[in-house]
Design goal:
This protein has three helices and 14 strands. By secondary structure, the protein is an alpha+beta fold. The protein has a single domain, classed as paralog of FGE (formylglycine-generating enzyme), CATH 3.90.1580.10.
Length: 248
Amino acid sequence: MVVLPPGLGVKAQPNVTVSTFVMDAYEVSVARFRRFWEAGHPTPGPVLYPSGQRLAVVEVPVEPAVTGVTGDGLKYNWSAQPGLRESQPINRLTWSTALAFCAWDGGRLPTEAEWEYAATGRVVLGLEPGRTFPWGEATPNCSLAQYDQCGDTTVSVDALTPIGGLFHLAGNVLEWTADGYDPDGQRCWDGAPKQNPLCADPALYQHTLRGGSFTAPTYQLMGGWRFGAANLSGARGMRCVRQPITAD
């Protein structure tokens, strides 16, 4: 896990700020998700966010599809018993399943603002905020991200080089965020200053994914790229965040 200090960080909304939070270094692996599933994959109560808002799981957790290639050509990593893909990211997750896992694991899904701050909004390794990709401005290649030029499959959650301690903030699997998907900015992203924003408008039936996947073209690896969905897909996974532990 990586502790991220408070700061500005959303390229499209430079007046958005986030408080200190802790982010998982890795996307959630099959092995890690398996512990949740074997524990009975409980449905949590509403999850509290730094904004004071609470998010509720809207449907019971859904078991991912088994390993193989489906009709849409996307590979799934889950298997009924432990297999060869335990170190690869869990995929084909619904938003509610991702939210339930993170709550069970003692955390929560990141907000869009937290995710983008972690990817391209913080100063790390001499890289300035507002960069195009997590690693800077260099054209993507297969040492930087697992995307559509690097083979039609995911790789281990600890493969490739981390940026500021975080692996695969671009490529491998799309990562669910807590926010509803507000495509035109009319409901949530109105340009006003915001502290720890969370777009939880009940009229938004989709949720936002960030980061691109192993099927992504180059533009989807950009830190500001976002996508809304409400259904299952082979490329959708997650990582969790937590509140920092403070001394009494």
